[in-house]
């Protein structure tokens, strides 16, 4: 039985797709068979971030409509054979996604996969609510910035009330905070909300802090999930996130200024 | 020097302003979110029942919902009119 993870945020541009690609690759690299699904129907981008945009033949909507089988639509990652990508449709309208259709696809994936990562679109429309509906765990991606924190709080409310688990009175979705685009030096200057500030407001379990990093754009430019850039701070931060999610106890890094981060890196680098 | 100190101590960082604004906003949005959706309907129906017996004003009834950590309080406040306003 697969564990279904939704990567969500409410606000756009905070790093949902970057995170989805990174954690899916991270989980797969640890030997867990993982599928990552793009729920952003109409504006698919996960394929680009994963570097498989030219291999897309069928998509999520094709599978839901029975125009292709799941196996036909799933793209096997060339770098890691435990990882599969299910792209979103580019042309169709959002109504193509139905709760029954998504449920069936996830049910079928659950038979064969260990983890299913759902990359949610921004907003609180159908695509976003369907991406989270069947979830067991939620990664709430937040930037240390007022509008992102507020939207994350709204998403928490929706996660708690509009999911399958909530409707069936089951154990609620496990929610984790992922603070992205963090600049320790700006925090120190009092120009940016700190990890503690955001945690205090959202009262969420912190899974990791991803520092603002040039490596993220470099990675997306070349279609390589940033977690594969093992030398980069963001890549290492995502590696920590995956390890923590799997139960490993790793101290938080990249929260303090560069100097300390460097020391930490030196002592920790394998 | 004292003037310098004055400016230094009174200017809060933009991050602390952000935190304060968010705390107020989030607390407010959470409280309105946890209110049960039946509240306006309940208020309307209660008013109708009470009006069968007492001629109260539209705004004489207030329904208030509060939530603490582990208890919910539904507070109902009805202002009864003076004796001679009552429906016989």
Write the layout of secondary structure elements.
The complex is a heterodimer of chains A (270) and B (88).
Chain A: E1 3-8, H1 16-29, E2 34-38, H2 46-50, H3 60-64, H4 70-73, E3 75-76, E4 83-86, H5 99-112, E5 115-119, H6 126-133, E6 137-142, H7 146-161, H8 164-167, E7 174-182, H9 184-188, H10 195-202, E8 205-211, H11 214-222, H12 233-245, H13 258-268
Parallel strand pairs in A: 1-5, 1-6, 2-4, 2-5, 6-7, 7-8
Antiparallel strand pairs in A: 3-4
Helix pairs in contact in A: 1-12
Chain B: H1 2-10, H2 14-34, H3 39-53, E1 61-67, E2 72-78
Antiparallel strand pairs in B: 1-2
Give a written overview of the molecule:
The complex is a heterodimer of chains A (270) and B (88). Chain A is α/β, with parallel strands linked by helices. Chain A has helices at residues 16-29, 46-50, 60-64, 70-73, 99-112, 126-133, 146-161, 164-167, 184-188, 195-202, 214-222, 233-245, 258-268; strands at 3-8, 34-38, 75-76, 83-86, 115-119, 137-142, 174-182, 205-211. Helices cover 43% and strands 16% of the residues of chain A. Chain A has an eight-stranded mixed beta sheet, sandwiched between helices. In chain A, strand 3 (75-76) and strand 4 form a beta hairpin. In chain A, helix 1 crosses helix 12 (233-245). Chain A is globular. Chain B has three helices and two strands; from the N terminus they run H-H-H-E-E. The chains are: A alpha/beta (270), B alpha+beta (88). The interface between A and B is medium-sized, with 18 and 14 residues.
Q: Summarize the biggest pleated sheet of chain A.
A: 8 strands, mixed
Strand order of the largest sheet of chain A: 3-4-2-5-1-6-7-8
Mean pLDDT over the full residue set of chain A: 92
Estimated structural class of chain A: alpha/beta
Low-confidence stretches of chain A are none
The CATH architecture name of chain A reads: 3-Layer(aba) Sandwich
State the fourth-level CATH superfamily of the domain at 19-79 in chain B. Answer: Cell division topological specificity factor MinE
Give the number of DSSP strands of chain A.
Answer: 8
Q: Could you list the spans of chain B in which at least 5 consecutive residues all have pLDDT below 50?
A: none
> What's the CATH class of the domain at 19-79 in chain B, please?
Alpha Beta
Percent strand of chain B: 15-25%
Q: What is the level 1 CATH name of chain A?
A: Alpha Beta
- Say how many strands of chain B there are: 2
């Amino acid at each position: 039985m697969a564990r279904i993870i939704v990567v969500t945020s409410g606000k756009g541009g905070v790093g949902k797709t970057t995170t989805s690609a990174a954690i899916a690759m991270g989980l797969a690299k640890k030997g867990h068979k993982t599928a990552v699904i793009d729920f952003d129907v109409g504006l698919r981008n996960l394929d680009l971030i994963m570097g498989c945009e030219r291999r897309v033949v069928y998509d999520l909507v094709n599978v839901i409509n029975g125009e292709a089988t799941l196996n036909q639509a799933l793209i096997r990652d060339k770098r890691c054979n435990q990882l599969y990508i299910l792209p979103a449709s580019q042309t169709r309208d959002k109504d193509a996604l139905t709760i029954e259709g998504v449920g069936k696809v996830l049910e079928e994936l659950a038979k064969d996969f260990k983890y299913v990562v759902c990359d949610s679109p921004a907003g609180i429309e159908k695509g976003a609510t369907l991406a989270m509906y069947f979830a067991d765990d939620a990664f709430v991606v937040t930037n240390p910035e007022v509008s992102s924190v507020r939207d994350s709080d709204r998403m928490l409310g929706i996660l708690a009330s509009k999911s399958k688990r909530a409707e069936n009175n089951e154990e609620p979705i496990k929610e984790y905070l992922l603070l992205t685009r963090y600049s320790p030096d700006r925090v120190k200057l009092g120009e940016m909300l700190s990890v503690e500030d955001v945690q205090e407001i959202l009262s969420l379990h912190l899974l990791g802090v991803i520092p603002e990093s040039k490596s993220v754009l470099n990675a997306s430019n070349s279609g390589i999930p940033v977690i594969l850039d093992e030398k980069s701070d963001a890549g290492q931060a995502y590696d920590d996130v995956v390890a923590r999610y799997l139960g490993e106890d790793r101290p938080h890094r990249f929260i303090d200024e560069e100097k300390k981060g460097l020391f930490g890196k030196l002592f920790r680098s394998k | 020097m004292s003037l310098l100190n004055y400016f230094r101590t009174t200017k809060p960082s933009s991050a602390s302003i952000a935190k304060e604004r968010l705390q107020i906003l989030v607390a407010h949005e959470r409280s309105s979110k946890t209110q049960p959706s039946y509240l306006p309907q309940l208020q309307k129906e209660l008013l109708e029942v009470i009006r069968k017996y007492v001629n109260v004003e539209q705004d004489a009834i207030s329904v208030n919902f509060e939530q603490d950590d582990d208890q919910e309080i539904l507070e109902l406040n009805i202002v009864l009119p003076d004796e001679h306003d009552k429906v016989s």
